[in-house]
Design goal:
This protein is mainly α and 228 residues long. It is built from seven helices and two strands; from the N terminus they run ββααααααα. Strand 1 and strand 2 form a beta hairpin. It is globular.
């Protein structure tokens, strides 16, 4: 059993590698783009809507509610980022139930990329909300001596976010494989159900943590901006 989809390499040229992570990431993106195209091309404001549009509206409403609850901010401006992260992670994890599919979220490179997106999103929203000067001043609050600790905190938080998702997906996959060897007749169904539940929970946790980090950055920068 391969520990990570990064290890299954089909083509390699210098630093360019075509591995399972890249292939299954493209598959997930194709599925999401195709579903979005099928649903949005027939979007209507009529009272009677299709099941796909109804599902999409329920999903968006649920995301808006969760984002608003986590950030205490107007959720619409965070929806493109956080909604995309949630849906991609969710679909990737759910597709792990398909035989032969290796979820991209089982790759540390994928989870690191997601965490870096959140890492850069925090200053983006902070600067947009409070301005560059107030944002930079927040790193020397309450004292300039706190600058290295604040920077280390930002970096370690990003690293923890990446490792959390990667570790949970990887451990779930490995536990399933081990139990499958021990009890091959009973475990598959149970582990498939447990894997789906873990996939949904991990997508939710990653998105909520990202929302909390962004909201915390906004609140800190707002407070520092008022003190200046």
């Amino acid at each position: 059993m391969e520990i990570s989809p990064d290890l299954t390499v089909y083509f390699s040229y210098e630093f360019i590698k075509l591995n399972d992570t890249l292939i299954f990431t493209w598959i997930v993106m194709f599925i999401l783009v195709a579903f979005s195209w099928l649903v949005t091309r027939r979007v209507t404001s009529a009272s009677i809507i299709s099941d796909n549009q109804n599902f999409l509206e329920i999903l968006v409403d649920g995301l808006l509610t969760q984002i608003e609850g986590a950030t205490n901010q107007h959720p619409e401006r965070f929806l493109p980022l956080l909604g995309t992260l949630f849906i991609f992670i969710l679909v990737s994890n759910l597709l792990s139930a398909v035989p032969g599919f290796s979820p991209p979220t089982g790759s540390l490179s994928t989870t690191t990329a997601f965490s870096l997106i959140v890492f850069f999103a925090v200053p983006y929203y902070g600067i947009k909300e409070n301005g560059l000067v107030n944002y930079l001043k927040s790193y020397v609050q309450p004292s300039p001596l706190m600058l290295p600790f604040n920077v280390i905190g930002e970096v370690s938080r990003t690293f923890a976010l990446a490792v959390r998702l990667f570790g949970n997906i990887l451990s779930g996959t490995m536990m399933g494989a081990i139990l499958l060897v021990i009890m091959p007749l009973l475990v598959p169904v149970i582990m498939q159900l447990l894997g789906l539940l873990i996939g949904v929970v991990q997508a939710y946790i990653f998105t909520v943590l990202a929302a909390v980090f962004i909201a915390a950055g906004l609140e800190v920068h707002s407070e520092s901006g008022q003190k200046v």
